[in-house]
């Protein structure tokens, strides 16, 4: 029998890579005859602990082959902005990707290429080789509605989004104010804006669109996508909702981990977790304000703190030396709150924490991976968006999906101590908090059902596998 291969091309940052690898695992489960090759691109930016993660996956899932692409030189005048790099690096790699795909095809039939949206440049390569090409949108159905509608927004106005004081009426979504749109879309003269528009256009021409969501969660957005209402100038490719894709195999020994041991001694549903992703960094002034708010709230808390950025953006903080918690937080804070709170530096096993019985709330940055982890665990949220599409996610989570409470922020994103105090207390004890708590528990049941045999996400994934097997373009 002739061998067949699916090639996955993720963005190398850990959040995107992990989510894409979950697709690789599912492919192997549902069709072990399909070989899976994951392209790994060397990145000139911080990606998180990707190499350790890849080594762990390789050891436990030998059926998944990671192909590290060779390093290519980056022009000296290349933008150092993360979004520009995330889109631009794949552009530099198109020749390498072309040659690698040709080499693979000499030994095996490439049934499909699945691109991260940041890997959009490779769409031209796959098209030139007549390969069925799918896009994996790492966020949910609501965000995908916006992404596909970008070309329509682009044609509706010649102004920059940052200069507009309007609400966008995007199919499948609540009204989105211009200021809540992803900041990368604010200025239409930038390369990042042009890359997002180009990606939106290519998505509409692809063999299919895969999103990390599930039936019963984003119903209005899902129905709108299925009806093809977000692409106004042509047909919509098949939509596959296969989530929640949450990291599997990430086991943490509760007898060894400080956070889990501490949680074991706390009452059920009494602890609020504060964790803001791998890029969630706050200035020192904000960290101190957060500490004051937490202490005044009287709630039990587990808080993951990263070092604040240096005042000089060109230098790392403290000359590269990690600061102590005592140097970051108000004097005496750790002693005063030691009976009710635990503060840890840099990292904590977030999925395991969210699934612990003692955790009853989550203050988070509205990143989609964290959102799904919370929803699947049945933990309500306070939405504190920081970057990327997170302000838009806040609108979905608070207004549409009703699994989070909004946090009042200043125009520059600063949150006062009394605001955090009030919202943490409301989430854990208040009437609005109870409504959100009840809602997220309902969604949690639907999330589990979606991923079971016969569940909506499993059915969609089988449709995706059938499409790949047939080699549909």
From TrEMBL:
InterPro entries per the UniProt record, alphabetical: UDP-glycosyltransf_plant, UDP_glucos_trans, UDP_glycos_trans_CS
Homology family: Belongs to the UDP-glycosyltransferase family.
Residue ranges the record marks as coiled coil: none
GO molecular function, one term: UDP-glucosyltransferase activity
Enzyme nomenclature, EC number: 2.4.1.-
Any Pfam family the entry gives: UDPGT
The protein's name: Glycosyltransferase
Stored CDD domains: GT1_Gtf-like
Domain of life, source organism: Eukaryota
Record-linked PANTHER family: GLYCOSYLTRANSFERASE, ISOFLAVONE 7-O-GLUCOSYLTRANSFERASE
Keyword Glycosyltransferase: yes
Keywords attached to this entry: Glycosyltransferase, Transferase
Enzyme class: transferase
Originating organism: Artemisia annua (Sweet wormwood)
């Amino acid at each position: 029998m002739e061998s067949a291969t699916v090639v996955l091309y993720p963005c190398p940052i850990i959040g995107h890579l992990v989510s894409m690898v979950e697709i690789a695992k599912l492919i192997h489960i549902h069709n072990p005859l399909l070989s899976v090759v994951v392209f790994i691109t060397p990145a000139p930016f911080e990606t998180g602990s990707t190499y350790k993660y890849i080594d762990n996956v390789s050891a436990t899932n030998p059926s998944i082959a990671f192909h590290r692409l060779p390093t290519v030189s980056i022009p000296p005048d290349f933008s150092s902005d993360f979004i520009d790099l995330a889109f631009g690096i794949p552009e530099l790699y198109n020749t390498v990707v072309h040659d690698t795909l040709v080499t693979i095809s000499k030994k095996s039939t490439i049934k499909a290429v699945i691109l991260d949206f940041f890997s959009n440049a490779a769409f031209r390569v796959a098209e030139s080789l007549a390969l069925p090409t799918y896009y994996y949108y790492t966020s949910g159905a609501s965000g995908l509605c916006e992404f596909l509608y970008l070309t329509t927004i682009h044609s509706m106005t010649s102004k920059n989004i940052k200069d507009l004081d309007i609400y966008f009426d995007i199919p499948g979504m609540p009204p989105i104010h211009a200021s809540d749109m992803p900041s990368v879309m604010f200025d239409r003269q930038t390369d990042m804006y042009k890359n997002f528009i180009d990606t939106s256009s290519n998505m509409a021409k692809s063999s299919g669109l895969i999103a990390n969501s599930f039936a019963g969660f984003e119903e209005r957005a899902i129905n709108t996508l299925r009806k093809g209402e977000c692409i106004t100038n042509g047909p919509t490719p098949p939509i596959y909702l296969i989530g929640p894709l949450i990291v599997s195999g990430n086991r943490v020994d509760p007898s060894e981990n400080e956070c889990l041991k501490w949680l074991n001694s706390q009452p059920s549903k009494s602890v609020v977790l504060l964790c803001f992703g791998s890029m969630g960094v706050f200035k020192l002034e904000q960290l101190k304000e957060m500490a004051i708010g937490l202490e005044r709230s009287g709630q039990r808390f587990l808080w993951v703190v990263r070092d604040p950025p240096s005042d000089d953006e060109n230098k790392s903080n403290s000359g590269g030396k990690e600061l102590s918690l005592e140097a970051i937080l108000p004097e005496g804070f750790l002693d005063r709150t030691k009976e009710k709170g635990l503060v840890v530096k840099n990292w904590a096993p977030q999925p395991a924490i969210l699934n612990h019985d003692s955790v009853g709330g989550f203050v988070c940055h509205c990143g989609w991976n964290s959102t799904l982890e919370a929803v699947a665990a049945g933990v309500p949220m306070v939405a504190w968006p920081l970057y990327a599409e997170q302000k838009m996610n806040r609108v979905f989570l608070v207004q549409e999906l009703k699994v989070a409470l909004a946090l009042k922020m200043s125009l520059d994103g600063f949150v006062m101590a009394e605001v955090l105090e009030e919202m943490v207390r409301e989430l854990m004890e208040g009437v609005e908090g109870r409504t959100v708590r009840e809602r997220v528990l309902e969604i949690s049941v639907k999330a589990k059902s979606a991923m079971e045999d016969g569940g909506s996400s499993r059915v969609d994934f089988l449709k995706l596998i059938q499409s790949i097997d047939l080699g549909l373009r």
